[in-house]
Amino acid sequence: SNIVVGNATQPTITVVSPNGGEIWHNNAERQRITWRSSGVDWVKVDLLGTRYGLAAHWPAAQGYVDINVPSDLNSSDEYYIRISDEAGRVYDDSNAPFTITSATSI
Description:
The relative contact order is 0.31. The protein has strands at residues 12-17, 23-25, 30-38, 42-47, 53-59, 64-68, 76-79, 81-85, 91-93, 98-101. The radius of gyration is 16 Å and the shape is elongated. Helices cover 0% and strands 49% of the residues. The strands form 3 sheets. The chain has a 4-stranded antiparallel sheet with strand order 5-4-8-9, with no helix packed on it. It is mostly beta strands. The chain is built from no helices and 10 strands.
């Protein structure tokens, strides 16, 4: 028989998207950030290397948040998303960088 003492499952968060290679445009287009989590009630979503917190106190069980890409971000292929629990103890980052680029006008 199995004996379980306390909470045997560690809380987890896993970034699903963007997870590397995506291209977003910084013209306030809508993008969906998705994740899987277990044992976490609320998450915050940050764009690493910037001052932008994209979502705070978001229900972890929803598994996604839709954001408008901030229009004043510099074009770069080195952006990462970090999704963490509110205390910052459990988190996950995009596995590889993704791109945010200026919108091309016609």
